[in-house]
Amino acid sequence: MDDSLALLISETEIKQKVEEMGRKINHFYAGQDLDKLVVIGILRGSFIFMADLARQLTIPVELDFMDVSSYGRSSVTTGMVRILKDISEDITNKHVLLIEDIVDSGLTLKYLSKILWARSPRSLRICTLLNKPSRRRTELEPDFYGFMVPDEFIVGYGLDYAGKYRELPYLAIVKP
Ligand code: IMP
Ligand code: MG
Protein backbone atom coordinates (compact mmCIF):
# COMPACT_ATOMS: atom_id res chain seq x y z
CA MET A 1 0.00 0.00 0.00
CA ASP A 2 0.98 3.61 -0.70
CA ASP A 3 3.00 5.12 2.22
CA SER A 4 0.53 7.95 2.62
CA LEU A 5 -2.38 5.55 3.30
CA ALA A 6 -3.46 3.46 6.31
CA LEU A 7 -5.88 0.55 5.81
CA LEU A 8 -9.31 1.18 7.32
CA ILE A 9 -11.63 -1.51 5.93
CA SER A 10 -10.46 -4.54 3.93
CA GLU A 11 -11.85 -5.88 0.68
CA THR A 12 -13.32 -8.91 2.51
CA GLU A 13 -15.07 -6.75 5.12
CA ILE A 14 -16.54 -4.55 2.38
CA LYS A 15 -17.81 -7.59 0.49
CA GLN A 16 -19.55 -9.00 3.56
CA LYS A 17 -21.08 -5.64 4.41
CA VAL A 18 -22.38 -5.02 0.88
CA GLU A 19 -24.02 -8.48 0.89
CA GLU A 20 -25.64 -7.70 4.24
CA MET A 21 -26.88 -4.32 2.95
CA GLY A 22 -28.31 -5.99 -0.15
CA ARG A 23 -30.26 -8.44 2.01
CA LYS A 24 -31.64 -5.59 4.14
CA ILE A 25 -32.72 -3.58 1.09
CA ASN A 26 -34.35 -6.64 -0.57
CA HIS A 27 -36.20 -7.39 2.62
CA PHE A 28 -37.27 -3.79 3.15
CA TYR A 29 -38.69 -3.26 -0.35
CA ALA A 30 -40.21 -6.74 -0.59
CA GLY A 31 -42.78 -5.50 1.91
CA GLN A 32 -43.66 -2.43 -0.19
CA ASP A 33 -46.06 -2.18 -3.08
CA LEU A 34 -43.22 -2.08 -5.58
CA ASP A 35 -43.42 -1.96 -9.35
CA LYS A 36 -39.71 -1.25 -9.59
CA LEU A 37 -37.16 0.56 -7.50
CA VAL A 38 -35.27 3.40 -9.17
CA VAL A 39 -31.73 3.21 -7.81
CA ILE A 40 -29.77 6.41 -8.40
CA GLY A 41 -26.00 6.48 -7.97
CA ILE A 42 -24.41 9.85 -7.24
CA LEU A 43 -21.31 10.12 -9.43
CA ARG A 44 -18.52 9.62 -9.20
CA GLY A 45 -17.82 8.33 -5.70
CA SER A 46 -20.62 5.76 -5.54
CA PHE A 47 -19.98 3.89 -8.78
CA ILE A 48 -18.08 0.91 -7.38
CA PHE A 49 -20.37 0.50 -4.37
CA MET A 50 -23.41 0.82 -6.65
CA ALA A 51 -22.09 -1.86 -9.02
CA ASP A 52 -21.49 -4.32 -6.18
CA LEU A 53 -24.72 -3.51 -4.32
CA ALA A 54 -26.86 -3.75 -7.48
CA ARG A 55 -25.70 -7.35 -7.95
CA GLN A 56 -27.08 -8.22 -4.52
CA LEU A 57 -30.56 -6.91 -5.33
CA THR A 58 -33.28 -9.40 -6.17
CA ILE A 59 -36.15 -6.90 -6.33
CA PRO A 60 -36.94 -5.30 -9.74
CA VAL A 61 -34.71 -2.26 -10.24
CA GLU A 62 -33.85 0.41 -12.77
CA LEU A 63 -30.33 1.80 -12.39
CA ASP A 64 -29.66 5.45 -13.06
CA PHE A 65 -26.99 8.04 -12.30
CA MET A 66 -26.72 11.66 -11.39
CA ASP A 67 -23.67 13.88 -11.27
CA VAL A 68 -23.66 16.91 -9.03
CA SER A 69 -21.11 19.47 -7.97
CA SER A 70 -21.09 21.82 -5.03
CA TYR A 71 -21.24 25.50 -5.72
CA GLY A 72 -18.18 27.47 -4.66
CA ARG A 73 -14.92 26.14 -3.34
CA SER A 74 -15.07 22.39 -2.87
CA SER A 75 -13.34 22.50 0.52
CA VAL A 76 -16.21 24.50 1.97
CA THR A 77 -19.52 22.73 1.43
CA THR A 78 -22.28 25.27 1.03
CA GLY A 79 -24.91 22.61 0.56
CA MET A 80 -25.99 24.12 -2.72
CA VAL A 81 -25.56 21.64 -5.52
CA ARG A 82 -25.60 22.06 -9.27
CA ILE A 83 -26.84 19.18 -11.42
CA LEU A 84 -24.14 18.33 -13.99
CA LYS A 85 -25.94 15.21 -15.25
CA ASP A 86 -29.55 14.46 -14.46
CA ILE A 87 -31.26 11.07 -14.29
CA SER A 88 -32.88 9.70 -17.45
CA GLU A 89 -35.92 8.30 -15.64
CA ASP A 90 -39.10 10.08 -14.67
CA ILE A 91 -39.44 9.34 -10.95
CA THR A 92 -43.02 10.57 -10.50
CA ASN A 93 -44.82 8.09 -8.26
CA LYS A 94 -41.78 5.78 -8.14
CA HIS A 95 -39.88 4.39 -5.18
CA VAL A 96 -36.39 5.89 -5.30
CA LEU A 97 -33.18 4.89 -3.52
CA LEU A 98 -30.23 7.29 -3.65
CA ILE A 99 -26.78 5.70 -3.43
CA GLU A 100 -23.89 7.71 -1.97
CA ASP A 101 -20.32 6.84 -1.10
CA ILE A 102 -20.20 8.84 2.13
CA VAL A 103 -22.43 11.19 4.08
CA ASP A 104 -20.26 13.81 5.69
CA SER A 105 -21.90 17.18 6.46
CA GLY A 106 -25.07 15.81 4.86
CA LEU A 107 -25.62 19.07 3.01
CA THR A 108 -25.27 17.64 -0.51
CA LEU A 109 -27.93 14.99 0.09
CA LYS A 110 -30.16 17.39 1.95
CA TYR A 111 -30.23 19.73 -1.01
CA LEU A 112 -30.46 16.95 -3.60
CA SER A 113 -33.35 15.35 -1.71
CA LYS A 114 -35.21 18.64 -1.88
CA ILE A 115 -34.76 18.78 -5.66
CA LEU A 116 -35.91 15.17 -6.09
CA TRP A 117 -38.89 15.43 -3.71
CA ALA A 118 -40.16 18.27 -5.94
CA ARG A 119 -40.58 15.63 -8.70
CA SER A 120 -43.14 13.74 -6.58
CA PRO A 121 -41.58 10.30 -6.09
CA ARG A 122 -43.62 7.80 -4.10
CA SER A 123 -40.73 7.44 -1.67
CA LEU A 124 -37.14 8.66 -1.49
CA ARG A 125 -34.59 6.91 0.69
CA ILE A 126 -30.85 7.21 1.17
CA CYS A 127 -28.27 4.44 1.17
CA THR A 128 -24.62 5.23 1.83
CA LEU A 129 -21.62 2.98 2.25
CA LEU A 130 -19.98 5.26 4.81
CA ASN A 131 -21.48 7.45 7.49
CA LYS A 132 -19.41 10.16 9.18
CA PRO A 133 -21.90 11.54 11.73
CA SER A 134 -19.35 13.63 13.63
CA ARG A 135 -19.30 16.10 10.75
CA ARG A 136 -23.06 16.41 10.23
CA ARG A 137 -24.34 19.96 9.77
CA THR A 138 -27.99 19.11 9.16
CA GLU A 139 -30.41 16.58 10.64
CA LEU A 140 -30.11 14.23 7.64
CA GLU A 141 -29.87 10.52 8.51
CA PRO A 142 -29.31 7.77 5.92
CA ASP A 143 -31.94 5.01 5.82
CA PHE A 144 -29.25 2.39 5.12
CA TYR A 145 -25.53 2.65 5.76
CA GLY A 146 -22.59 0.26 5.77
CA PHE A 147 -19.94 1.54 8.17
CA MET A 148 -19.68 4.35 10.69
CA VAL A 149 -16.31 6.04 10.10
CA PRO A 150 -14.19 8.45 12.14
CA ASP A 151 -13.53 12.06 11.17
CA GLU A 152 -10.69 11.24 8.77
CA PHE A 153 -10.33 11.62 5.02
CA ILE A 154 -11.17 8.28 3.45
CA VAL A 155 -10.25 6.97 -0.01
CA GLY A 156 -10.63 3.83 -2.10
CA TYR A 157 -13.58 1.77 -3.37
CA GLY A 158 -14.76 4.77 -5.42
CA LEU A 159 -13.74 7.57 -3.05
CA ASP A 160 -10.98 9.90 -4.18
CA TYR A 161 -8.51 12.43 -2.88
CA ALA A 162 -7.90 15.00 -5.63
CA GLY A 163 -8.85 12.43 -8.26
CA LYS A 164 -6.61 9.68 -6.87
CA TYR A 165 -7.25 6.27 -5.26
CA ARG A 166 -10.77 5.53 -6.55
CA GLU A 167 -9.61 2.22 -8.00
CA LEU A 168 -8.39 0.73 -4.71
CA PRO A 169 -10.42 -2.36 -3.71
CA TYR A 170 -10.22 -1.45 0.01
CA LEU A 171 -10.91 1.68 2.11
CA ALA A 172 -7.99 3.62 3.56
CA ILE A 173 -7.32 6.77 5.57
CA VAL A 174 -5.11 9.45 4.02
CA LYS A 175 -2.39 10.15 6.59
CA PRO A 176 -2.08 13.83 7.50
P1 IMP B 1 -21.45 16.29 2.30
O1 IMP B 1 -22.37 17.22 1.60
O2 IMP B 1 -20.51 17.02 3.21
O3 IMP B 1 -22.17 15.16 3.02
O4 IMP B 1 -20.53 15.74 1.16
C1 IMP B 1 -20.46 14.46 0.80
C2 IMP B 1 -19.50 14.31 -0.37
O5 IMP B 1 -18.20 14.83 -0.05
C3 IMP B 1 -19.32 12.84 -0.65
O6 IMP B 1 -20.23 12.38 -1.61
C4 IMP B 1 -17.90 12.77 -1.12
O7 IMP B 1 -17.85 12.98 -2.51
C5 IMP B 1 -17.19 13.92 -0.42
N1 IMP B 1 -16.48 13.44 0.82
C6 IMP B 1 -16.80 13.72 2.09
N2 IMP B 1 -15.96 13.11 2.95
C7 IMP B 1 -15.09 12.43 2.21
C8 IMP B 1 -13.97 11.56 2.51
O8 IMP B 1 -13.61 11.29 3.67
N3 IMP B 1 -13.33 11.01 1.43
C9 IMP B 1 -13.71 11.25 0.14
N4 IMP B 1 -14.73 12.04 -0.20
C10 IMP B 1 -15.42 12.63 0.83
MG1 MG C 1 -19.89 12.28 -3.67
Explained architecture:
This protein has 176 residues and is α/β, with parallel strands linked by helices. The chain has a single domain (11-150), classed as 3-Layer(aba) Sandwich (Rossmann fold). Helix content is 22%, strand content 32%. It has 3 helices and 9 strands; from the N terminus they run βαβαβββαββββ. The chain has helices at 11-30, 47-54, 107-117; strands spanning 5-9, 37-43, 61-70, 81-85, 95-103, 123-131, 144-148, 154-155, 171-174. The strands form 2 sheets. It has a 6-stranded mixed beta sheet with strand order 4-3-2-5-6-7, with helices on both faces. A 3-stranded antiparallel beta sheet has the order 1-9-8. Strand 2 (37-43), helix 2 (47-54) and strand 3 form a beta-alpha-beta unit. Helix 1 (11-30) crosses helix 2. The model has no long low-confidence stretch (mean pLDDT 93). Bound molecules: inosinic acid and magnesium ion. Magnesium ion binds at residues 42, 45, 101.
> Remind me, CATH topology?
Rossmann fold
Along the chain, the helix and strand elements come as EHEHEEEHEEEE
Give the helix tally. 3
Strand coverage percent: 25-35%
CATH architecture: 3-Layer(aba) Sandwich
Helical amount: 10-25%
Overall average residue pLDDT: 93
Q: What is the tally of beta strands?
A: 9
CATH class: Alpha Beta
Compute the separation of the termini in Å.
Answer: 16 Å
Are any ligands bound, and if so which? inosinic acid, magnesium ion
- How would a crystallographer describe the biggest sheet? 6 strands, mixed
In terms of per-residue confidence, which ranges show pLDDT below 50 for 5 or more consecutive residues?
none
Q: Structural class of the helices, strands and pairings?
A: alpha/beta
